[in-house]
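Appendix B: complex inputs.
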Amino acid sequence: MKETTAPREVTTAKGQAGSALAPSGAPYRPGDTPEAAPVVLRLEDVGVRYAQNPAVDGVTMDIYKNRITALIGPSGCGKSSLLRCLNRMNDLIPTAVVNGPIYLDGVDINSGDVDPVQVRRHVGMVFQKPNPFPMSVRDNISFGPKRLGIGGKTRLNEIVEHALRAATLWDEVSDKMDQPGTALSGGQQQRLCIARVLAVNPEIILMDEPCSALDPIATLKIEDLMRELVREYTIVIVTHNMQQAARVSDYTAFMLATEHGLHGRVIEYGSTKDLFTNPRDKRTEDYITGRFG
Amino acid sequence: MTRALLERQLAEIQEDMLVMGGMVEAAIERGMEALKSRNVELARQIINDDLNINRKRYEAEEKCLDLIATQQPLASDLRTIVSVLHITVDLERMGDHAEGIAKIALMLADEPPLKPLADLPSMAEIATRMLLKSLEAFKQRDAALARAICDEDDEVDSLYERVYHELLTYMIKDQSTIQRATYMTWVAHNLERIADRVTNICERVVYLVEGRIQELNVSKY
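Resulting structure:
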């Protein structure tokens, strides 16, 4: 078992798609689910602690390519901590310690010689509150590609338009490209942030409560967008909104902490349809039917 | 325990369904009584009372749809509501079959009896027993009992075949019995359908308990 403590040294990225480092241990497949999609992320006995406080414990699960996987559970169950493991965002928290390998296309992203910046290029993240950079719509999107060394106005404009179209925002902002991103509506800002992630062409998109600050219409637009994006990308979403998990995801993992904010575990992981109609574990049943607490 | 309103509404729709089951059971028994005793008044009452069963079904459907729309039920709550929706439809149709028996009782009231009733009351007895047991299986969330009840449907089917052949024999031997014997085959058919619908209820009990939609009463044809 590997243990990594933030911050890490930045080294050469090796987390390229198709690398041949074979994951160990038996894969975890949600029960009774014939799944033809390949595994893109494999977590093996993953744990997270903040200083001496364990937040997530013993999570072993496979995330499937071109599928939406939802992490649900009560506040403090460790779902955001687990999500942050998937692109090494916990590295940014000084007290965070992540245990256990997480294989992205077969390469352990927690391995010492993997560059977290490269991991985040492959695994982008959208946060709870839309957080456009204080710059124009265009610059918000071109910021990432520029940092990756992509130059040329025409090429950058192509990337910007492509990302905005993919985020279903182009038609609404094509005449506002030089206006500040922060001037857009909340829902537009969140789609701008999604477009910003798409601009660096990630493999996986993590979403941490992406709709909690949005109204129902903006929420449904993001959900529609997620179903579009999953044709090209793999999405992992943390949501408090169970109906949202039921609406958009293919798989759902229910997490629960034995104490508030401590020892969060995956209690049940399965196809969303099964988990919401016929959960196997009474704790899942109690949570999703609202008998929890 | 949270969601007290949902709990109360769930209890209510299940209670309504069980009351409806009792109304259907009474309709079957009274239908057979009307047939045996040639009681026209009773037959008319059963036909009239079927309206109450139908009304009960629509009320149940409305309550279930309200629950789905307003409470976003999931897991066993959702399965309970879906099961009640299906079972109340089956009960309503069983009520129609009982009404059918009552109508035949009316049609036969002035006709001389073909023969003493023996197998038809047996069919009715097994079918109502199956119905009561299926509702008990629902109450107890007992999938094993639900599966066992379906085996009893074979008894009803055997009796139906026997009654059918016997009545055919009557018709062949004596053409003057054709109309009465045909009516009696309709009674048998109604009872056979009632037992079949009990197996639908059993399928819903299995779904409620195990989350699996499974056909229990596989046709032998």
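The two ends of chain A are 35 Å apart (CA to CA).
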